[in-house]
Hints:
The chain has 570 residues and is an alpha/beta fold. It is built from 24 helices and 10 strands. It has 4 domains: 10-178, P-loop containing nucleotide triphosphate hydrolases (Rossmann fold, 3-Layer(aba) Sandwich); 184-243, Helicase, Ruva Protein, domain 3 (Orthogonal Bundle); 250-367, Zinc Finger, Delta Prime, domain 3, CATH 1.20.272.10; 440-522. The longest helix has 22 residues, at 525-546. The N and C termini lie far apart (86 Å).
Amino acid sequence: MTKPSPHQPLARKYRPQTFDQLVGQDTTARALANAIQMGRTPQAVIFSGVRGVGKTTTARLYAKALNCEAGPTPSPCGKCESCRAITSGNHEDVLEIDGASNTSVDDIRLLRDSIGYVPQRSPYKVYLIDEVHMLSQSAFNALLKTLEEPPAHVVFLFATTELQKIPQTILSRCQVFLLQKMTAKTVTSRLEEILRLEGLQHEPGSLRPIAREARGSMRDALTLLDQAIAVGNGKLTTALCESITAQAPHELVTALLCALVAKDPKQVMATVERIEQTGTDLVTVVEDVAQLTRHAFVIRDLGRNAMDLAQLDLDSNEIQELEGIAKSAAPFDLNRIFRMLVRCRQDMDGSPLDRWILENNSLEWCLDPGLPDLQQYRSALNATASGTPATASSALASPPTTAAPAVVVAQAITPAAAPAPKPLVQTPAASAAPTFPGTWAELVAMWRQHRPLQAGKLEDAHLHSFSPELISLTVQETSFARCLLNKDEQVKLQQGFSDLFGFKGRIAIEKADSGASVSPAPESLAQKSDRETRAKQADLRQAAVNHQTTRDLLEIFGGKVEDVRIKNVD
């Protein structure tokens, strides 16, 4: 009776065999293929990246391209004896070495002594050292001279997940390729292709949990896919794929973020309980909520055009839901929630109290009253001045929401004093009526003090009219200021100008190329600053060339000025 052949894991079965099949690493594949085609093949290469992105696979492809019987060629045939031997891992001229178990200087000396022997059947003798960062300092030192002047028939290929641990002396002798983590979209597309080749069906959206769980590693994704196929007997559903990952369902992650934005402690507790019942690793939950919070923060304050939404691995309904959460959040609340989650994640490292740490941090966020609200204290001051201390007290007692600065000083009274103390409120001098700036440059400078992240947008805009009645701007669609064309941004700008400068007029912002009947776009503040900086640099260069010391040196040594470099222009 013939024994059935053992199952071949998908990660091995669908390992790329040519540079064209290398998924998600187009730049590296193109660089190596071009180097081979131009006859400029590097003899020492480091492939760096997280696990499962194709470091060893890329190194084997490079070895195959160098030693193919039709080559060296950027398109190895995969059929010749040399290609087949490299694919199966038993080519006598391609030696794979585990850096983690061959770390000593003696191991490297043996390797170094062997490189003098010519290849047995191929043009190149290839040494592929995996996890090269595990080598000892003495072992690295033993490699230095060989890497600097390797024999013509020797190629060193190194793979590492921790590039920073490799000495600079080694890095300077190698070409370094940084292999990128793959996006969830790229991983999902590859998994769908493999399922088609395997003749298996899957429920729409079922592969997304696997792609998210893989976190940029194609090998991890294929391992999870293998597991899902086995568990589901070849039928893949969203519920099944979620059950084999460490991630909570997306709706629960979103529910927890909503509860934090609403500062609803009861809803937070209930959502954490529901997540706990799924058996999900809470560390992963905190990371997922933090990631979603970051996306919402960017969308709220910079607009959806500030990032590539296709990279978020969210469908259109989820993106719309995230925009709704972002709009419902108070200013900077999303940023503060993100920082709270980062601290929470740090506290959870190595602790068995992950649930209690998550709940405690979340409840602290929901229940902490925060810093006082300046507007409420202004109301309290007005109430006190008008002789209605009861109104002032109620204003002071109401829950503050924002972080505007204010100082409250209570009058000192003796224990026997009968009347209730009246609060004295010291507010900043800004409580006086705001003054509209005299120029656009003054307005932007004052705006930078209050909204530093948004001042750059105003500096990129082109001013056409400036008065207390009308501020007219045009914006290049390709500039940093393009988000000012968004109506929501304009509403926030109008409100901010009103609060800070007492501006009651109209703000008109149009595209510079929209064909509007306005004069040609004048110089923006950013362009003016750039022009003035260049002019100042030109003056400094000319002054340096014409300086008496420079002229004396040129006369003494018979030289000429090749270049003048300006280190800094204040």
